[in-house]
Amino acid sequence: MQISQETSAPPVEMRTDKRSFLNKLCQYVFYIHFILITILVIFLTARGVISSAKTHKFQPKKWYLPILSSTACGGIVAFAWHAFTSFNPSRTLKATFWLSPLFTCAFGILLVSIGTPGSLAASVIALVSSVLQSIYACWVNPRFVHANKILTLSITYNPPKVRNTALLSIFISILYSSFLISGIGGATATRTKIDKIFIFLLLISLTWTMQIIKNVMQVTVSHIKYMQFACGIEVDFKDVVKNAVKYSMGSICVGSIIVPVLAVICGGARAVSLVSGDVDEFLFSCAGCCLGVGSRIVAYGNRWGFVHVGVYNKGIVQASMDTWEMFRRNGMEKMIDFDLTSSFCFLCGIAGGSICGLVGGTWTLFTEKKYATEVSIYAFLTGYFMNRVAMARVQAGVAAYYVAYAENPQSQQFDSTIPDYIRGLERLLA
Predict the structure, then answer these.
(1) Residues 256 and 299: beta-carbon distance below 8 Å
(2) How far is residue 50's CA from residue 86's CA, in Å, rounded to a whole number?
(3) Is 408 helix (H, G, I), strand (E, B) or coil?
(4) What is the mean pLDDT of residues 126-143?
(5) 323 neighbors 309 (Cβ within 8 angstroms)
(6) What SS3 class is residue 234?
(7) What predicted TM-score, i.e. pTM, was given to this entire model?
(8) Quick one: 162 exposed, middle or buried, by C-beta within 10 A (0-12, 13-18, 19+)?
(9) Residue 340: phi, psi to the nearest 5?
(10) What Rg do the C-alpha atoms of the chain give, in angstroms?
(11) What is the rounded distance in angstroms from the CA atom of residue 133 to the CA atom of residue 152?
(12) Nearest-CA neighbor of 355 among 16, 181, 102?
């Protein structure tokens, strides 16, 4: 595909005028939350240092060194996965589907070895998850050919600034995770009842902020890739970033809440449908209803909508509805459901989180076992989110490719990859 020289005037109609009250409110809430969390972390860290110096019940070195080392490890793994995907997307895709169950299983075994009630509960989740991942990898094996082709087409060309920004987002994720971990450590040092609430709030902040970092990358990169696929031009990177921060931040904050929640609901509905199969029992009588609800609510909040959030500055709900309607109109709905990009990025996060959990958990298991459970779980969460941020560029490229095709299937910018796959699915599902 030929890319023309960089331009700052993309030939699309931008909606830069009004944002909804909800978007503005959510944006302001995020900024206020960020300030309050910063104050809380500084307070907890200082209080934890003073408390550990007086009581000596909490050993900062044996808690902080493993968790911060595993956080740094998460950043290294995120950089590595990002690089492997860029250089050889086909092999990285296949390797991820087979390595993720192995790392998850190893993490589950580590949790069993720790032997606390909390670690045993978490180990059950990890081991069951590893089995389900293995079954899923076998089930989707025939889809790898199409997924490889789409992945390769979507990330073939990226301006250097995009790659640098992706790396910068990983670095920011490492810093923010380490900052929140210091606050969690301070709360752990005193272990009062209210500290449990503080830790919960910090984990919520970690989840939301990491989602926002990921989705800022999603909006920015998908805008740039969309203009390449739809118009064959390269837009000015600074203008795209400025537009995203100035006009789309509210939609990104809202979408960072709505999209993951709806994705979990839709995933649960599809899981119920798959488990029920053709069994006509009371237990599975609502499977069809669940699947119907899942297929409807996905239209109101999905990752594909972030493309229109960046390009047209729409709200996430309107953008999601518009993109999903285009998919339906072009007969792409089943193909989107069968797309493996989201599964690939999710498994990258799971594998990265498991590696971090293994590093932090093994370290504390041999140095101070009483910290092993919490350090393992916190390490897993930070590793998971950092790797999801690392894969945002890949997910954005694939989303832009599908949305650009749905808007103009006759464009000369596209080959027969999507029509061939749609026809293949129709024959398979007939």
Answers:
(1) no
(2) 46
(3) coil
(4) 92
(5) no
(6) strand
(7) 0.90
(8) buried
(9) -100, 0
(10) 22
(11) 23
(12) 102
Count of CB atoms situated within 10 Å of the CB of 282: 6
Q: What distance in Å separates the CA atoms of residue 105 and residue 127, rounded to the nearest whole number? A: 5
Q: What do you get for the CA distance between the two ends of the chain, in Å? A: 34
**Which of helix, strand or coil describes residue 59?**
coil
Q: What is the pLDDT of residues 207-254, one digit of tens each?
A: 999 999 999 999 999 999 999 888 888 888 888 988 888 888 999 999
**Residue 281, C-beta contacts closer than 8 angstroms, at least 6 positions apart:** none
Q: Is the pLDDT of residue 273 over 80?
A: no
pLDDT bracket for residue 269 (50, 70, 90): low
pLDDT score of 338 more than 90: no
Element (H, E) at 34: helix 21-55
Q: What angle do CA 422, 426, 429 make, to 5 degrees?
A: 130
- The C-alpha atoms of residue 263 and residue 258 are separated, in whole angstroms, by 8
How far is the C-alpha of 209 from the C-alpha of 175, rounded, in Å?
12
Q: Are 320 and 301 in contact (CB under 8 A)?
A: yes
For residue range 347-360, what is the model confidence (pLDDT) as tens digits?
999 999 999 999 99
